[in-house]
Structure formats: C-alpha cells, structure tokens
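Allow me, if you will, to draw on your knowledge of protein folds for a short while. I have a record of one protein: its chain in single-letter code and its fold written as discrete structure tokens. Could you please explain, in whatever detail you think fit, how the structure tokens follow from the sequence? The record follows directly beneath this note:
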Amino acid sequence: MLQELDSNLTSTDNFIHEQNCKLAEKDNTIWNNKAEIERLEKKNKMQEHKVKDTLIDTCQRLICCRCAGQFFNIPCGSLSD
C-alpha cells in the first residue's frame, strides 16, 4: 500500500513537472510575441511619421509652387522642382 501511494505521488510529481514545462514554454512564447508586437508597433509608428513628413513636405512644395506661379504669373504645371 505504501508503494502504491509512493507511485501515485511520483506520477503526480511527474505530471506537475510536465505541466510546468508546458506552461514555461507557453510563457516564453507569450513574451516573445509581446516583444515582436512592440517592435512592430515601433516600426509602424516610425513609418507613419515618415509618411506624415513626406506628405507635409510634398504639400509645402506644392504650396510654394503655386505661390511662385501666381506671383510670377506662370502656370503651375510649367514649374519644376
């Protein structure tokens, strides 16, 4: 009877160990995914700023082009950057 209890306890310990290993693997996967999400969010934010800066620069050039064309009475399509 004592051997049976010891065997059950060993089985239970082995099961708990296996579950802890699986849990540790899943925890590691979660942390890796969080790190990847943070990296991608930073990259996305950087790309958004680049697009915004490009749009602002383009708009400023168009405004300057139109202002110069009106000031010198030149059609905007004939001005080049």
In short: The mean pLDDT is 85. The radius of gyration is 33 Å. Residues 17-76 form one domain. Residues 17 and 23 are 10 Å apart (CA to CA).
